Amino acid sequence: MRLSSTFWTRILGLLAPCGLALTSHAAECTKDTVSRRFGNVSFDHEAAVRAANTRSVEIRNYDQPFKPALCATVVRALDRIGQATTGKLRYFLVQSLKLEGSPISGLFRGDDLVLIAYYPHDNNGLAEFERVIYHETSSYVYRQNPELRAEWDALHDRQMVAGGCAFHGDQWYFGHPDEGNSRAAHYRACGVLIGYGASNAENDFNTYAEDYFMDLDGLRRLAQNNAAVAKKLALFFRFYPAGR
Fold first, then answer.
1. Same domain for 188 and 77
2. Domains in the chain: how many in total?
3. Partners of 103 in the β-ladder
């Protein structure tokens, strides 16, 4: 699951106009473009509600346009991931998502369902929208490799303990839960890229997937100076061997 972020609303939203040039064909990209190219991607609101099949997930339609830059971002992200993975999934692009009343940007559910909210990213920034696609898709990759997943889970927990973290309720925290997971020096020492990745091993894996697709060179540079990240990245490449 990828949480909605007000930070990106303020910061990446300023950069959104730059994303309009994602491709020379961005202005021509439409919902039909996506549906024709990827037969497993749907914009059908009612079908998404039926697929989610739970009252805890709220899907809304505000009749907002699917802008060309958003469209081009979807095409680029799914092409980057590759048909071998995306072809096994059902994607629903909807305008708004809530899980148990809280706004979220995306959700992986069941064995093959990916829900992505695109309306918030009209102001939230194209880079964040693209990250959500990688994040949720990678839940499938993570869950389809039980042996590697067990290794990742064990490494995540070992590094969190070594970094002085404690498990409260259903997630890890640095210190007490009231302090949150915002102290970068701590979570980087634990091999976690952002505070959200500290919450559990799957979110940790998915944040690595975001940087794998968005900034692999930067991730490699970080690993050169961070032993914990280097161990995680070496294991991550066994899930995604093409990135070695």
1. no
2. 2
3. 98
